[in-house]
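Batch job 17 of 40 flagged for manual review because the log was empty.
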Amino acid sequence: MDNVSRGILINDHETEITFKVSPDEEDNVPKVAFILFASDDGQVTGDGYKEYLLMRLDGEYCPSNEYANNELTVDRSRFAGWNQWKELNRDEFDCKVTFSLEGNTVISTADNGGISISCCTVFKTKAAKLYVALTGDQCAITNIRCS
């Protein structure tokens, strides 16, 4: 992957990541996602890489796989429609994603332009260290902060 952040270690309770997304051209709508994974060196596609979750911030993609079951919940009660969402995402915008780790489960949450997303990831076999990386297409992801 060309446009992917370094791996961010998920701690034992809750990890919050905030960042800015800037479209690379005025008419582009960025495609932003995050990857929940494990690898020996904490890098996407590093040795021992296992991808548990790839979740887009538009709530359209969140499959289960051989390493984890993912159950996605999308709340669009504050969603004004795709045209307005695209307009909001054509300018620089702030994002926040949170990860709550408890035992064999991670709850991932995000909100973008009236789309609230929550995904429950249950590991079939959980690694000792879990990481998150941010990725995007047609955009720059900057000012990444973890708490």
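Reviewer: the log was empty due to a logging misconfiguration, but the result itself is present. The CA atoms of residues 67 and 124 lie 5 Å apart. Unflagging and moving on to job 18.
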